[in-house]
């Protein structure tokens, strides 16, 4: 079930293999329900090495590993799925390439129309954002709580909220009914990733 904390890695916050694996394992121990590997560099060998190490780690905790944007990397690492932006490979091509069992998520920015189309095309979840100012994507268009509420009313697939979410502002987003909150800096920007993850996980229980 896709519900809870969706943790996204950051190559700047976790520049080494050791730091990447240490911080991701802390998030897994803290209760993260999905890990997304995100690395925008052109270092193919590093990405394959790290993604394969992460899938082994995630399998140990029975948590899916999603690859950001890169369908080939998802195949080469045997990851559980891929997350696509609007400018990436088409959902139809990706589904045919990866197969029916893999998870495919789609970025929909603040558009319910895009989300409905993604659902119709067979996406496993959709992501809306940015909810707040985000250091990862400072120029991202904002999404309103009203849009998130309407998305939950009109969509049957899980809804993920992303963008500047932290333990202080997460309650207002969770109250909209979204299934998951995706976080980067609010987890991996801190030394105690385990504690930060637990704080966010606890918000879903209130």
State the end-to-end CA separation. Answer: 18 Å
Low-confidence stretches: none
CATH topology: TIM Barrel
Gross morphology is globular
CATH architecture classification: Alpha-Beta Barrel
Number of helices: 9
Helix content: 40-55%
Question: Secondary structure elements and their pairing?
Answer:
Blueprint: E1 4-8, H1 17-30, E2 34-37, H2 44-60, E3 65-68, H3 71-77, E4 81-84, H4 91-98, E5 103-107, H5 112-121, E6 125-129, H6 145-154, E7 159-162, H7 170-174, E8 180-183, H8 185-188, H9 193-203
Helix pairs in contact: 1-2, 1-9, 2-3
Characterization of this structure:
By secondary structure, the chain is an alpha/beta fold. It has one domain: Aldolase class I (TIM Barrel, Alpha-Beta Barrel). The protein contains 9 helices and 8 strands. The chain has an 8-stranded parallel beta barrel with strand order 1-2-3-4-5-6-7-8, surrounded by 7 helices. β1, α1 (17-30) and β2 form a beta-alpha-beta unit. α1 (17-30) packs parallel to α2, α1 (17-30) packs parallel to α9 (193-203) and α2 crosses α3. The radius of gyration is 16 Å and the shape is globular. The mean pLDDT is 95.
What can be said about this structure in brief?
This protein is α/β, with parallel strands linked by helices and 206 residues long.
Provide tags for this entry:
alpha/beta, eight-stranded parallel beta barrel, TIM Barrel, 206 residues, 9 helices
